[in-house]
Design goal:
Blueprint lengths: L5 H5 L4 H22 L6 H12 L5 H15 L15 H14 L5 H14 L1
Helix pairs in contact: 2-3, 2-4, 3-4, 3-6, 4-5
Subcellular location: Endomembrane system
InterPro entries: DUF1232, UCP031804
Pfam families: DUF1232
Length: 123
C-alpha cells in the first residue's frame, strides 16, 4: 500500500493553487463534512480549521496548508476512497490531523465559535 506523503499534501503552494483549493473547499466542504461526521472524531476542530482557512487574517502559509488538507478531504477519490465503509475517511483523518496539529495556534476563538454555531445548525 502506498504511503501518503504528508509534506506533499500539506504543501501550501502558490497563490493560484491556494485559490483553486479554496474554491474547491468552499464548494464541497459541508457536503463532505456531513458524510464524514461520524467518522471524524474531531469535527469541531475540523470546522474551526475550515473557518481559519477562509479567514483573510490567517497567514498565507497557514491558509495554504489548511486548504491543501481540506481539499484532500473534499476530493471524492483519494488514496482510500471515502465510500469504503469504516476505512474511507482514515487517510483524510491522518492528513487533517497533521495539518491541524501543525497550525493549531492559528485557530482563534472566533473560528471555534463559528464552528460551534455551524455544527449546532447542522444537528
Amino acid at each position: 500500500m502506498k504511503q501518503i506523503d504528508i509534506e506533499e499534501v500539506l504543501a501550501p503552494g502558490d497563490a493560484e493553487e491556494t485559490g483553486r483549493r479554496e474554491k474547491r473547499v468552499r464548494l464541497e466542504f459541508w457536503r463532505t463534512a456531513k458524510r464524514a461526521a461520524r467518522h471524524v472524531p474531531f469535527m469541531d476542530e475540523l470546522v474551526a480549521a475550515y473557518y481559519c482557512a477562509l479567514d483573510p487574517k490567517t497567514p498565507f502559509r497557514v491558509r495554504g496548508t489548511l486548504l491543501a488538507a481540506l481539499a484532500y478531504f473534499v476530493l471524492p477519490l483519494d488514496f482510500i476512497p471515502d465510500f469504503l465503509v469504516g476505512f474511507g475517511f482514515t487517510d483524510d483523518v491522518a492528513v487533517l490531523t497533521a495539518a491541524i496539529t501543525a497550525i493549531r495556534s492559528h485557530i482563534k476563538p472566533a473560528h471555534r465559535i463559528a464552528a460551534k454555531k455551524s455544527l449546532a445548525e447542522v444537528d
